[in-house]
Write a structure and sequence with these properties.
The protein has 10 helices and 12 strands. The chain folds into 2 domains: about 110 residues, Aspartate Aminotransferase, domain 1, CATH 3.90.1150; about 220 residues, 3-Layer(aba) Sandwich (Aspartate Aminotransferase, domain 2). The N and C termini lie far apart (about 60 Å). The structure holds 4'-deoxy-4'-aminopyridoxal-5'-phosphate. 4'-deoxy-4'-aminopyridoxal-5'-phosphate binds next to helix 3.
Length: about 350
Amino acid sequence: MSWENNVRKVVPYVAGEQPKNKNVIKLNTNECPYPPAPGVEAVLNHFDYDVLRKYPDPDVADLRTVLAKRYKVPVEQVFVGVGSDDVLAMAFLTFFNSEKPILFPDITYSFYDVWADLYRIPYECQALDEKFEIKKEDYCKENGGIVIANPNAPTGVAAPVSMIEEIIKANQDVVVIVDEAYVDFGGESCVPLVEKYDNLLVVQTFSKSRSMAGMRIGFAIGSKKLIGFLNDAKFSFNSYTMNATSIIAGVASVEDEAYFQEITGKVIATREWTKQELARLGFTFTDSKTNFIFASHKSIPAQEIFDALRENQIFVRHWNKERIGNYLRISIGTDEEMKQVMEFLENFINERK
Ligand code: PMP
């Protein structure tokens, strides 16, 4: 017998490409095109290196306190982790511990099935309708837990909070995770519902709307009881998930609400302009409430457009998967970047005719 029989084998999540060449238009991983809040640079420039000698605060009190204030919840209801991937992975481990399958849409963040496989959690995907919308009734049957990205990725479609609330209401005996990675670009947040439902965990990230994907900060808001269980699992795994620089940079970011509003507003305005341009060029797309657009051309296959863009140093995301194989997910860059991409697409489409 080989030792390989005892290995926990998984098919890993495939992250978007991070090209080495800096001279590209990078619209493939939904990063924010603007710098982090100016206060982040200021605290890092004045960083006291002696801090690195010591372990960071395992409770991450400073960051949890500013988040609690920002989201108007007690600090005991805030959990932080190394990006929302870390928070979600910890939440799957903690809350999805049933023989019954967890439920999530067939088209959604492709890490959910990877964590489920890693932890041996049974799962059942629920097909979105033809408009890529969630059908509430699919989530009103016996299950071991629910995870919904809202707005969803890679579709960009946002479900109304009223519908999510009905799903939570019908599932009080399991934990419902709402992944709000993109909520700051025009979606409606479920955070106010945590007061009403102690089985709801809302997860957000600093990677998109706070321009800090490189810092790796994510957080969750839920009932005191839910966050308590999450902490028990975290402290049984790694007490010091958050490093000292992430903590101080994260605090500085949350303290600058005006900058946060400014850059999310800019991304939204650029997204709406891009939608008009894409429509003019013959694309159809969902009504994205995120920092990306999920688009399909009426006559040119997505793979062909993807290849042409890539050859010209423009990176977007494409999946060779059922139902979405003819779509491109285009992150929103600066106005200048989007203008260049639209010009390229216009020329490409005209020359191909
Ligand atoms: N949830 C969704 C829906 C995402 O698209 C992403 C980004 N890949 C994440 C969570 C994780 O983001 P991060 O770990 O950078 O917070």
